[in-house]
Amino acid sequence: MMCADSRIPCSSRHVDCSHFCFIVGMEGRHVLQRHCGCPQGMTINTTDHRTCVPTPEPDLPYPDCPSGSFECDDGRCIATEFRCDKENDCSDASDERNCTGRLS
Questions:
Q1: Whether residue 64 is found in the same domain as residue 38
Q2: How many domains is the chain partitioned into structurally?
Q3: What's the whole-number mean pLDDT along residues 20-48?
Q4: Is 39 helix (H, G, I), strand (E, B) or coil?
Q5: Range of the domain at 71
Q6: What's the predicted TM-score (pTM) here?
Q7: Rounded to whole angstroms, how far apart are CA atoms 38 and 89?
Q8: What is the mean pLDDT of residues 2-14?
Q9: 3-state SS, residue 37
Q10: CA of 55: how far to CAs of 16, 33, 38, 43, 84, in Å?
């Protein structure tokens, strides 16, 4: 549901972020501000602070996977229950490899 209230920075009339719009309150004041955000692999354009541009350096590696999770070949972590569930939960489908003997 979209808010149409003109006082809310991420309402339909004020959404000028290219990807994500976050509402942030100012500490000690009753003012809401808009902060734009970008998906992984992109960063906020420092000229307009609204659009996203590709990150110039490669993405940082994923952290070590916690216990109870599966580490994909690309370094991502997924919950072990998503392994061998016939759905590609890793971007490289490594969670669906070598799944013989598993229930469907």
A1: no
A2: 2
A3: 81
A4: coil
A5: 57-86
A6: 0.42
A7: 22
A8: 55
A9: strand
A10: 20, 25, 10, 5, 33
Please name the residues in contact with 104: beta carbons below 8 A apart, sequence gap of 6 or more: 86
What are the structure tokens assigned to 60, written together? 């940082």
- Give mean pLDDT, residues 82-98: 89
The reply to whether 32 and 70 lie within a common domain is: no
Q: Which residues lie closer than 8 Å to 16 by C-beta, 6 or more apart?
A: 34, 36, 50
> Does residue 93 surpass a pLDDT of 80?
yes
Closest listed residue to residue 18, CA positions, set 58, 53, 65: 53
C-alpha to C-alpha distance for 95 and 104, rounded to whole angstroms: 14
Q: What is the mean pLDDT of the chain?
A: 78
Q: Where are the beta strands (DSSP E) in 31-96?
A: 32-37, 42-44, 52-54, 69-71, 77-79
End-to-end CA distance of the chain: 37
